[in-house]
């Protein structure tokens, strides 16, 4: 499962794992790195890889969910990556 980390507190929660992989990072350099990577095209590269992998493995569709507040992400998915809106996803916390 891939989970998008959207907020700084989530990035910090993931720091121990990243520090296992990148031992040269401390929390400050890790946050600086994440901020500098924004708008570098990594999302497009990752989705292109997912699309290719899905095709090679016989999948006909890739679906994703995105929070309602992520307007910029929605624009990216639709205009740059060719995704279409199919409906709404609903949930209820019990």
Report a brief summary of the structure.
By secondary structure, the chain is mainly α. It is built from 4 helices and no strands.
Estimate nothing, just give the exact number of structural domains.
1
Please tell me what the overall shape is. globular
Kindly report the average pLDDT value: 88
Order of helices and strands: HHHH
Q: Quick one: biggest sheet?
A: none
* Total strands: 0
What does this structure look like?
The protein is mainly alpha-helical and 94 residues long. The chain has one domain. It contains four helices and no strands. It has helices spanning 8-21, 27-37, 42-56, 71-80. The radius of gyration is 16 Å and the shape is globular. The model has no long low-confidence stretch (mean pLDDT 88).
Secondary-structure topology with pairs:
Elements: H1 8-21, H2 27-37, H3 42-56, H4 71-80
What brief labels describe this structure?
single chain, 94 residues, mainly alpha
